[in-house]
Write a structure and sequence with these properties.
Elements: H1 2-25, E1 33-34, H2 37-43, H3 49-58, E2 62-63, E3 66-67, H4 81-96, E4 101-105, E5 111-112, E6 122-123, E7 127-131, E8 154-160, H5 163-166, H6 174-187, E9 194-199, E10 203-210, E11 213-217, E12 220-221, H7 226-236, H8 241-244, E13 250-254, E14 260-268, E15 274-279, E16 286-287, E17 297-302, E18 308-317, H9 323-329, E19 339-343, H10 360-364, E20 369-377, H11 389-407, E21 413-414, E22 423-425, E23 436-438, E24 445-446, H12 468-471, H13 484-501, H14 515-519, H15 525-537, H16 542-545, H17 552-577, H18 582-593, H19 596-613, H20 645-651, H21 697-704
Parallel strand pairs: 1-11, 8-9
Antiparallel strand pairs: 2-3, 4-7, 5-6, 7-8, 9-10, 10-11, 10-12, 13-14, 14-15, 15-17, 16-17, 17-18, 18-20, 19-20, 21-24, 22-23
């Protein structure tokens, strides 16, 4: 009975996981198809024709024009597993000539998933190609009866089907193998793409996954085309890690226990020369748990002189301005993280795929993405690791000043994703202006006061911190600009998050997510907007929502900032819900934007007043009782971690639930951002570097001293 219950739970979990994959990559008739010939051409050099002929003459596993697999009536799918394992394990060493790849039956054996937060989820591919090498490691959790099986050391998976169950296309099988693919991306963080074979006793095809989603091939008859079948097996078990789909600029040293011990990352320095950094830790400090999307992964690295940097790898959608464009323009600005160097357009997902063969609908579902790597100077940990009230309020204040610096002068950059995750603490003892930093310009856009230039989009940003007007952008009458005031409102919600959820400072204090905050994190923008509007319209009763820890100066700041934001929301609502013509609406918005200096000065003065009233150190009080926040609050991944190894080590104990992206795991709308016809943009050169910023870590420290 226990086994039955467990199997039912497992089936239910897998069904839910399939739905996640479908939501991410699209329904079966939306997934692009291609010819298998594209991939066979890529794998052709892995097996020469003469060697294939020699192998087929020698082997006992291919006789009379068919592979040795059961075909008699009554054959079950599981009867195919061991024969396929035997075939693969004869092909792989014969052609690859190495012993670091091996096919293993894994059906019925749980390969555990890695999630944030942790779960007991697992899945069981029919077979895996187990791998050794500088990108693979012994799993941190393995099945008791099959130690060593896991996604962290799987080159690929083989999914077996009876020929009668295979169907005419692989489209319906994509969600199942997508579960395995997603875990390989998560547990092999230098993955560029994953390819999985689906095989029956007579036919086979390949499913490809990358940051643009999935693509599947047509099916070939493996008995009539044995050489092509051999090449497919060799392709998904290839010892060449680059061809297998891994980024070989990130490499590890594997310790005696089979785990990653240390590693290196190779990129370009500020002069465009190749440079190899040591990884501060063998694992990324941030890893977006999805297949399709930006696929952001962050690493802390150290150069030969001991300086630490944060390296951010991501995949930018075509039609979006590169983050490096904004970071270059932000060079020298206080309150904004500074770029040390970058690589642009390293690869693109279109290069990994074959031409689409199944029509316009599938073509519309493919959006090319380009790989980019940015090296950033290191600062402190995320703002949630504040050590006192003054520490938190000062960091938030300087991040707002950084936002003003982006908007003002000749830069005109609008961030559009202000959240608790995107504000870092400055280095210890930093002076005013360097106590907090704004990071992550992925969603930024060039901004001006023409309302037709930028249309607000409720899919852009982090749901919990989105402004009311951005949330209401799904309504036709609220097709308004996303402006600096929307970002200011987001800063207000960051302050609410800190004051509602934290009952103290220091790493022993864990966040308790307030019900009010949870209500702002609704998947449906209509409900999230309604909940925030209700909050804005109610008097703020601090005793009902603010943790007792916070000083009265912070409470006054919260109330004053709420009044400022509420007035802005009210004015915007009157503009768009009134009887004004479109031209009159634009005039009113332009008039509002003309007060931008006054708006920033007002907000910053509120913070300065509070900071002046706060003690440098919090009063000593008895530790607050707190419970750890769990996955139920927000299932979509952790905040973008921070840089400095020393700061992160000190802050390691504290964990908070993570606000989810409005676009869920996709992280940003695939289509290009809305632009006015007059707006023109130029693509960046393929590779480049930024000269060292005057606000690098070492100079910031010296300024603080």
């Amino acid at each position: 009975m226990a086994a039955s219950t467990q199997n039912t739970t497992q089936a239910s979990t897998l069904a839910a996981q399939k739905q996640v994959i479908v939501a991410e990559i699209g329904k079966s008739n939306d997934i692009p198809a291609t010819t298998i010939g594209h991939f066979l051409a890529e794998y052709e050099h892995l097996a020469e024709k003469d060697k294939i002929k020699k192998f087929l003459r020698k082997t006992k596993l291919y006789k009379k024009g068919v592979w040795e697999m059961p075909r008699e009536e009554g054959t079950k799918e599981e009867n195919l597993y061991v024969p396929m394992e035997t075939i693969a394990n004869e092909i792989i060493p014969y052609f690859h000539g190495s012993s670091n790849r091996k096919a293993l039956v894994s059906s019925g054996k749980p390969l555990y998933h890695k999630e944030n937060p942790a779960t007991n989820h697992s899945s069981s591919p029919d077979l895996v190609i187990q791998a050794n090498g500088p990108s693979f490691e012994f799993p941190h959790r393995t099945p008791m009866l099959a130690p060593g099986l896991g996604y962290s050391n799987s080159a690929s998976c083989l999914e077996m089907k009876l020929d009668k169950d295979l169907g005419n296309t692989l489209a319906s099988h994509v969600p199942q193998v997508g579960i395995y693919s997603r875990q390989m991306f998560i547990q092999q963080p230098n993955r560029r793409f994953v390819r999985i074979l689906v095989i029956s006793e007579n036919r086979a095809g390949l499913v490809h996954f990358d940051r643009s989603g999935a693509q599947y091939t047509d099916l070939i008859n493996i008995n009539e085309r044995p050489g092509d079948f051999i090449r497919l097996i060799l392709g998904v078990s290839c010892p060449d890690e680059h061809l297998l789909g891994l980024d070989t600029t990130i490499q590890w040293v594997i310790g005696p226990d089979g785990r990653k011990k240390s590693g290196t990352l190779t990129t370009e320095d500020a002069d465009g020369n190749e440079i190899t950094y040591d990884l501060v830790e063998p694992y990324p400090v941030f890893n977006r748990h999805s297949i399709r999307g930006r696929g952001t992964i962050c690493w802390t690295v150290r150069d030969a002189a001991g300086n630490e940097f944060l390296v951010k790898d991501s995949w930018r959608s075509d039609g979006r301005e590169s983050e490096t464009t904004f970071l270059e323009k932000a060079k020298g600005l206080q309150g904004v993280a500074q770029m040390a160097s970058f690589e642009e357009d390293r690869e693109e997902t279109a290069e990994f795929r074959g031409p689409i063969t199944n029509g316009q609908r599938a073509e519309d579902n493919f959006h090319n993405r380009r790989s980019m790597r940015v090296v950033l100077h290191c600062y402190g940990p995320p703002i949630i690791h504040f050590t006192s009230m003054k520490h938190a309020i000062s960091a938030l204040r300087d991040a707002i000043a950084g936002h003003r610096n982006l908007i003002h002068q000749d830069r005109r950059i609008l961030h559009r994703d202000i959240s608790i995750s995107n504000i870092l603490l400055g280095n210890p003892g930093a002076q005013k202006g360097l106590r907090g930093f704004l990071i992550d310009l992925d969603m930024a856009i060039f901004w001006n006061r023409d309302p037709s230039e930028i249309i607000a989009d409720c899919r852009t940003g982090t749901r919990l911190f989105q402004s009311i007007m951005v949330l209401r952008s799904f309504e036709k009458k609220f097709q308004t600009t996303h402006d600096y005031l929307d970002d200011m409102e987001s800063y207000f919600y960051v302050l609410c998050y800190l004051m509602f959820c934290f009952s103290g400072a220091g790493d022993h204090v864990k966040a308790i997510i307030a019900d009010e905050i949870k209500s702002w994190d609704d998947d449906n923008p209509k409900f999230a907007a309604a909940n925030k509007t209700s909050f804005m319209n109610r008097p703020l009763r601090a005793q009902d929502c603010v943790a007792p820890y916070w000083h009265k100066a912070c409470v006054s700041l919260l109330k004053d900032l709420k009044l400022f934001v509420a007035n802005i929301v009210r004015e915007k609502t009157e503009i768009f819900e009134g009887e004004l013509t479109e031209e009159e609406q634009e005039d009113r918005i332009e008039e509002l934007h003309g007060k931008d200096n006054d708006h920033y000065e007002k907000v910053l003065s509120l913070f300065d007043k509070a900071i002046e009233a706060l003690p440098d150190q919090d009063p000593v009080v008895e530790s607050s009782k707190a419970t750890d926040a769990t996955s139920a609050d927000s299932p979509h991944g952790g905040p973008l971690p921070t840089p400095s190894h020393a700061a992160r080590s000190a802050a390691k104990a504290k964990r908070v639930p993570v606000p989810k992206r409005s676009s869920q795991e996709l992280e940003d709308p695939e289509e290009p951002q809305v632009k006015h016809p007059r707006t023109a943009r130029s693509m960046r050169s393929k590779r480049g570097a930024a000269k060292p910023s005057p606000l690098s870590q070492s100079q910031s420290k010296s300024a603080a001293q």
